[in-house]
Here is the input.
Amino acid sequence: TIWYLYRDNLLPKQTKFVGYARTKQTIQDMREKSKTYMKVRPGEEDKFEEFWQNNMYVSGSYDKRVDFELLNQEISKNEKGLVANRIFYLAVPPTVFEDVTVNIRNACVAIKGYTRVIIEKPFGRDADSSNKLSNHLAGLFKEEQIYRIDHYLGKEMVQNLMTIRFANTIFCPSWNRENIASVLISFKEPFGTEGRGGYFDDFGILR
Here is the structure.
């Protein structure tokens, strides 16, 4: 997705991408893993190479401030201009949200611009844990710095449910609590959990 945004010039020209995770890998490793998903059309080869030149990767733990200080150093190397904003996209399990956000707040806040934190669902596993996370974040960032996202809501079928119901006279009179006894949702993917079993036990789609 980031490649498509970059390819179509929908990102500021000076944007740099810094990956951070526990996995010990290099940018070349990431490139090999992702190449089957990244469609490069004829004539885009130079742009594709340029894209990868703007990518960096730092390996570190989620609960050690010193590792986030190293991340901060890597980010700072690329902040040449007078203004440099930082956006952190947290695609991590809710169990590490607190450690990660504390370390971002203590070691990685932008000096020459704004700092934003994007939190990808699931946001907790129930109302209590969700409220706990909200209170935790409120102590670290202002509300306008926080963006919560559920990427599954971007699926076309989900987006079109309202249209399907209200724009079709065959469904509109019957799709209501008087006529529907239960709803069965089947989630099918052509691949397995791929090492994410622990995540799906407590959070994720099944939850």
Observations:
- The mean pLDDT is 88.
- Residues 34 and 117 are 24 Å apart (CA to CA).
- The radius of gyration is 21 Å.
